[in-house]
DNA sequence: ACTGAAAGACACAGACT
DNA sequence: AGTCTGTGTCTTTCAGT
């Protein structure tokens, strides 16, 4: 089992899932490396339909990716920062250029378009405060059309789960 | 390959990883279902050491979990909300009770202790605005010792990656 | 620490109900 | 829709370097 998930880009299309799909999905959210055989034992179906249902959820983009989740505190990325950004101008091109520059910054592991005072929320991981300062001053602040930036530091992780359905 | 990752709870202990470990980790962050054989081809080692290195990273808590990442927009959880919460009192017991109640709310998929004006940041997924309103009024706001709540709505996902090292 | 081999388990496709 | 069966591939362990 080695292939990457390929996302079909019919953006935002709802996919109908029955109870068995949801059971399978929950198991995969908890443990992406569970075997099809184990799923089939728990869901009371043989392996073939499990296979087909997983393949369908991969192809329709319900399953975006299988990922190993890393404890950043243990691998020299101890600092997580929530970063709010507003742009000076809000035309389409300005936004697109900012997004493009964000996609190229490996420190930024999440970015959302948000409502309210700011335009974007970023989740940034860095080795330490010096590294974050460098990112802030030399990378993020160099993005053209940047307005205001506000940084909020994560002091502790209370909860991080994937099971959402 | 079916076992869950077991986290050793020597909280926050740094784990030393060499370049080969990091290569393996990057591959697993991109695709948790990659085969050991494929990793061994890319990292130029045979399967045995790959196995041992992965097992070590699982046992030391570097790899927290293998997870299928779901596109919430496609599975009737179209609304993501960033939610800031402050408490009235900041003693240890009050915080612990709030955390306990958060851990019991399936709508809350992430929760962080943060610096600044608010005490916690939550990421909440809901089916729609009605469902979020219900969560806000009937669940979150019922938590004892709750001060202020501010909701920021996610209008679009720009980036969500796992590769952080 | 690593290589190579070998046994058992698994994924995945095919024929069938 | 699903079960059953088979083949090739993978995981995982172990002896050896």
Automatic annotation (TrEMBL), chains A, B:
The keyword Lyase belongs to this UniProt entry's keyword annotation? no
Kindly state which keywords UniProt assigns to this record, in alphabetical order: DNA-binding, Transcription, Transcription regulation
Cellular component (GO) terms are: cytosol
Entry-linked InterPro entries: ArsR-like_HTH, AsnC-type_HTH_dom, Dimeric_a/b-barrel, Tscrpt_reg_AsnC-like, Tscrpt_reg_AsnC/Lrp_C, WH-like_DNA-bd_sf, WH_DNA-bd_sf
| One of the GO BP terms on file | regulation of DNA-templated transcription
Database matches in SUPFAM superfamilies:
Dimeric alpha+beta barrel, Winged helix' DNA-binding domain
Which segments does the entry list as coiled coil? Answer: none
Answer whether the UniProt record assigns the keyword Transcription to this protein: yes
Question: What does the record give under GO molecular function?
Answer: sequence-specific DNA binding
What PANTHER family has UniProt attached to this entry? LEUCINE-RESPONSIVE REGULATORY PROTEIN (PTHR30154), TRANSCRIPTIONAL REGULATOR AZLB (PTHR30154:SF34)
Under which name does UniProt file this protein?
A: DNA-binding transcriptional regulator, Lrp family
What species is given as this protein's source?
A: Sediminibacterium ginsengisoli
């Amino acid at each position: 089992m080695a292939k990457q998930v390929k996302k079909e880009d019919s953006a935002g299309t709802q996919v109908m899932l029955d109870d068995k799909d949801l059971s399978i999905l929950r198991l995969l959210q908890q443990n992406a490396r569970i075997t099809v055989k184990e799923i089939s034992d728990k869901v009371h179906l043989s392996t073939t339909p499990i296979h087909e249902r997983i393949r369908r959820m991969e192809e329709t983009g319900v399953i975006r990716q299988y990922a190993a989740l890393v404890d950043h505190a243990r691998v020299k990325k101890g600092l997580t920062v929530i970063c709010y950004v507003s742009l000076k101008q809000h035309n389409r091109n300005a936004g697109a250029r900012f997004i493009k520059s964000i996609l190229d910054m490996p420190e930024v592991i999440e970015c959302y378009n948000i409502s309210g005072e700011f335009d974007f929320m970023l989740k940034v991981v860095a080795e330490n405060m010096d590294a974050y300062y460098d990112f802030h001053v030399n990378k993020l602040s160099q993005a053209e059309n940047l307005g205001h930036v506000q940084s909020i530091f994560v002091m502790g992780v209370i909860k991080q789960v994937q099971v959402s359905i």
